[in-house]
């Protein structure tokens, strides 16, 4: 075992796990952060989407040894703190658009949407249909139309 230190949702954490343990299991099983969901474990379904240093990533595909002490991991649990509110504007849009059915993929969907809005804004432009098509998170319930509406609504609130 080895010690690994990094930041999660604004707090420094140190875990004692093998270097090759996937970050998803560290978050869920060691730290008790269950927002990032296990779906496929191979970076396809994107149910575990979180942010590392403000960018979307999938902790199921990252070994804990690849995360350093200066890296900031943000999960759905920490997303509201990034705006100093009870809910992030994207979460509010999700609720108002009644996106979730089973809800399993929603934390990852929201995290992907927030990262996309930030990226597009940094480029000085608005969300396009092509941008929305680029969100590859799988929703087994098929609420894609409501997801698209919520992303646009959330983007307007951010």
UniProtKB/TrEMBL annotation:
InterPro entries: 2Fe-2S-bd, 2Fe-2S-bd_dom_sf, 2Fe-2S_ferredoxin-like_sf, 2Fe-2S_ferredoxin-type, Aldehyde_Oxdr_Iron-Sulfur, Beta-grasp_dom_sf. CDD domains: fer2 (cd00207). Residues 2-79 form the 2Fe-2S ferredoxin-type domain. SUPFAM superfamilies: 2Fe-2S ferredoxin-like, CO dehydrogenase ISP C-domain like. PANTHER family: OXIDOREDUCTASE WITH IRON-SULFUR SUBUNIT, OXIDOREDUCTASE, IRON-SULPHUR BINDING SUBUNIT-RELATED-RELATED. This is (2Fe-2S)-binding protein. It comes from Terrabacter carboxydivorans.
